[in-house]
Design brief:
The protein is α/β, with parallel strands linked by helices. It has ten helices and eight strands.
Amino acid sequence: MGDQLTAVNVMSFRIMNYLWIAIGIGALTACSPKPSTDGASQAESDPKTQIVATSRPLMLIAEEITRGLDDLSAVATSGDSHDAALTPSELKSIRESDLVLWLGEDAQPGLAKQLKDLNAVDPSIWVSLPESRAHKGEQDPHFWFSSTQVAAYAQGLSDALSKMHPERALVYADNLTGFKQRLEQISEQSVDMAGVKYLSAIDVYQSLEQQTGIEFDGALAEHDQPIKPSSLQQAALSEAKCILASNPDQPQALGKFNWIIIDELMRGASSYAEGLSQAVSLVRGCQ
């Protein structure tokens, strides 16, 4: 009988030991830090930045840096973004945004009042813009046909977003690196067109000159103005082989020129890289 009691006591002691060990392991597991997720997964779970662009090319560039991490929208894209007339819903979108990307007061004077006191950034903050040839004393905001200028803009945007969300900095930096590589590939495909002259329907392709080397020989009209007879006379004397324009409205008097349509707002492109590649490819028609 004594031996049986001893065996029972030993078994009970062992069971109690196992229970205490299990409880201890459970407590340690609960207190242990959980495995950390990678930067991209963590960034995706953070609140998204509301970014509004007032020109489609600016939105396309921002998409290359955010790549789904933030909410992007474009306003004033139904017509000419220089003379932006915002709808009530677009105004609401701007007021609720965390960051507004716009062309600046010279290019979009109608938006200056709406953007007052908001976190609005114009290209001159991040890019060295040339002087406008059409409007002396103003800067030319059409920087997006130059991969060099776009790389600088993208760097500034990446830095700004990283300050707003330090936890996403590595992801923004990785996206920027990939975007710069794509820009370099497009630059390598660009044909050197130094010595080839072109006319412009309106002067919006100064950055494309930097990208390809093509040379400006005059603009036929001021922004949103009809072509003047004097401009037709100028064109008749020009050595240019082509006319670059954003729309296909071609006067018969300019029939001797190759009329090349390059949409300044990249409305037909699904990505920035696609838009620049199309422009670079089309301008070869001037040769």
